[in-house]
Amino acid sequence: VAHTADLVVFGGTGDLSMRKLLPALFHSDRDGRLAPETRIIALSRGGLTDADFRGKVDAEVRDQVPADDLALWQRFLGRLHHLTVDVGGQDRTGWQALSRLLAGHESRDRVFYLASPPMTFGPFCRELELAGLVTPDSRVVLEKPLGRDLPSAQLINDEVGAIFDEQQIFRIDHYLGKETVQNLLVLRFANAFLEPVWNSLWIDHVQITVAETVGTPGRRGYYDHAGALRDMVQNHLLQLLTLTAMESPARNDREAIRDEKVKVLQSLRPIVGTEVGRFTVRGQYAQAGDLPGYLAEPGSTPPTEDSGRVETFTAIRAEIRNWRWAGVPFYLRTGKRMPHRRSEIVVQFKDVPHSIFPGGAPNRLVLRLQPEEGIELHIMAKEPGAGEIMLKPVPMSLSFGKTFTTRVPDAYERLLTDVLAGNPTLFMRRDEVEAAWRWIDPILDAWQASPDLPEPYPAGTAGPASAHELLGRSGRAWHEEE
Ligand code: BG6
């Protein structure tokens, strides 16, 4: 049974809250995963009353609610509150109002969800402490990005860590809430047939791609200072890499799993200095047909010199230095304005040791996260016919949508349920985040020091030419190019 909770969302009227958190909370409510008295208290600078906020949520989120559920939707709206707060400012009235609202409910689980920029995390936690709102059962949820490099991430971790214990801190990476990502753990650690071949003896290389068709309209303020490496690789792609490469944990518990993941990050071979040019690619989309280039995307601020230097695409050849993976490249790739929205992990096996048939291609396991979650194993089959044996790769495929009739929850639903249950397994531990930055920082430094700009690629295409050469020079190719 879910505990009664007060969920306080800072940045509660923002984009993430409207697009992801509130719909996810509604679905949790509908499925009976919120206790009847649980409240959702949005904080912003917006000066809204509870009624204003409910009206705004009703107007912006209701189209995601099935028609049959409108009565439940009304009940859900009744859980919502709004308070106006001033972080780091002189005006204490918002904090006093929050204290009054929470007073008398100290025994409830308190969750402070910071859906706000990272520089607000430390100040916000200090305000909470100052107002005496942190109880032993409080948790704090930090949205990405957690800093912009290792020192800034450490600073945030220190500031938040001065007020909350590590087990109270939930650092979100919403990729860990995706069904296929959790399924990867099940596939690897609940099936016997993969483990014997899951190593450098049998695997040629791994490709991890998160391709998006969207550009960055309206996000220049954020994106100019982020770029694909910070926005996607430091967190989502490296998380996918750890789950693909980790050793079997001894138990399905928070520390055992995260211990194994962190070891993978610590085993990444650093890419430094001149190697950065060899093992990484950065690109920026340029105008093509109706699609604007990055610099012409509408945004609240005009493009600056930073805009010209930011990468909207990156590809990296990573290596894990341990017994299982030595010599197996892990190619990472992500970009905006690519031709298809497609996220997948492709495990490419080696060729058969000795071939007795003409033709043939190595086996390949594709774990698809998006658009349709599923698993495909490409195996060689004989093409029917009475003549000479002809090989043909055919997929053995599992589509989650077709196999299971239950609704696939959004990543945020799963993660919010875990936060409310106090289970941090699918959240990033401090050492994980920092190990990821430790590997990313030298790449950022080298890019920063380089006089070169990112290579342009036409919007709607699969990245710049160098991304193809990154694999092509060792005779390999990205999955969709064959
Ligand atoms: C976010 C990034 O973390 O992930 C966005 O900030 C990106 O730039 C998004 O578009 C992708 O998430 P998903 O779940 O749509 O693949």
From TrEMBL:
Annotated substrate binding sites: H174, K178, E212, D231, K336
One annotated GO molecular function: NADP binding
Annotated binding of NADP(+), by residue: R45, D86, V87, K144
Keywords, alphabetical: Carbohydrate metabolism, Glucose metabolism, NADP, Oxidoreductase
Top-level taxon in the UniProt lineage: Bacteria
UniProt keyword annotation of NADP present: yes
Renumbered residue ranges of the record's region Disordered: 454-482
SUPFAM superfamilies associated with the record: Glyceraldehyde-3-phosphate dehydrogenase-like, C-terminal domain, NAD(P)-binding Rossmann-fold domains
Functional note: Catalyzes the oxidation of glucose 6-phosphate to 6-phosphogluconolactone.
PANTHER family: GLUCOSE-6-PHOSPHATE 1-DEHYDROGENASE (PTHR23429:SF0), GLUCOSE-6-PHOSPHATE 1-DEHYDROGENASE G6PD (PTHR23429)
The name this protein goes by in its record: Glucose-6-phosphate 1-dehydrogenase
Gene: zwf
